[in-house]
Amino acid sequence: MTGATLRAAGPGDSPAVTDVYLGARREMRYLPVLHTDEETAEHFAGVVDRCRVELAERHGRVIGFAALHGSWLEHLNVHPDAQSEGVGSLLMTWAKEVLPKAIDLWVFQENVRARAFYAAHGFAIVRLTDGDNEERQPDAHMRWEAES
Q1: In the β-sheet with 72-78, what is the strand arrangement from edge to edge?
Q2: In this predicted model, what pLDDT tens digit does every residue of 53-73 receive, in sequence order?
Q3: Phi, psi of 138, deg, nearest 5
Q4: d(C-alpha 14, C-alpha 21), whole Å
Q5: How is domain 5-145 classified at the architecture level of CATH?
Q6: How many Å apart are CA 106 and CA 139, to the nearest integer?
Q7: Which tens digit of pLDDT belongs to each residue from 118-137?
Q8: What letters, b where the CB count within 10 A reaches 16 and e where it falls short, cover 97-129?
Q9: CB–CB of 65/75 below 8 Å?
Q10: 17 closest CA partner among 117, 91, 93
Q11: What is the pLDDT of residue 27?
C-alpha cells in the first residue's frame, strides 16, 4: 500500500530530504548524534547537488528518498511514519532501473531491519567492518548484481 509516487529531486528539495533522513536516523538509537540538524541540512543540500536523488511522495509530502552516486546507493531512507508500506521497495525498484547491473551500499550491522530488507532485494554481504566510519559502528558492504 504505497500510494506513493516518485519524482526526481531538485535543489529546493533538500529540506524535505533532510527531514526524512533525520526522522529515520532518530529511530536508530544505537548511533551517536555527531551533527546538528543544521549541519545535516547543509550535508543533504550537497547530496541533492552531487547525487541522483529520487523522492517518494504521498499527498504532496516527501516520505522517502534514494540517492545514487556512481554505482553506489548512498542513501535509502523512509520516514518512520511511512515505513513497512512498500515505499523502500518502490525506491529500490527505481535504483535497479537506473543501475541495472550492480549496486553497492553500506549498512550498519546493527540495522537488522535494513539488512533484511536489502537481503530480500537480492543484496549479499561483500565484507564486514569493525566500524571504520564516522559513527565508529560496525557496518556491512552489500552488493546486488543482476542475474546474467
Answers
A1: 5-8, 52-58, 61-69, 72-78, 102-108, 139-145, 124-128
A2: 999 999 999 999 999 999 999
A3: -55, 135
A4: 10
A5: 3-Layer(aba) Sandwich (3.40)
A6: 7
A7: 999 999 999 999 988 888 99
A8: eebeeebbbebbbebeebbebbeebebeeeeee
A9: yes
A10: 91
A11: 86
**Cα gap 69→117, rounded to integer Å:** 20
Q: Pick from 125, 110, 105: which is nearest to 31 by CA?
A: 110
What are the backbone dihedrals phi and psi of residue 12, each rounded to the nearest 5 degrees, phi first? -75, -5
pLDDT at 41: 85
> Sign of the C-alpha dihedral, residues 122, 128, 132, 134?
positive
Give me the long-range contacts of 26-29 (CB less than 8 A, separation at least 24): 26/80, 27/80, 28/108, 28/110, 28/111
* Stretches in the chain below the pLDDT threshold 50: none
Overall pTM surpassing 0.90 (yes/no):
yes
- Cell numbers given for 82: 511511512
Residue with grid cell 546507493, as numbered in its chain: 73
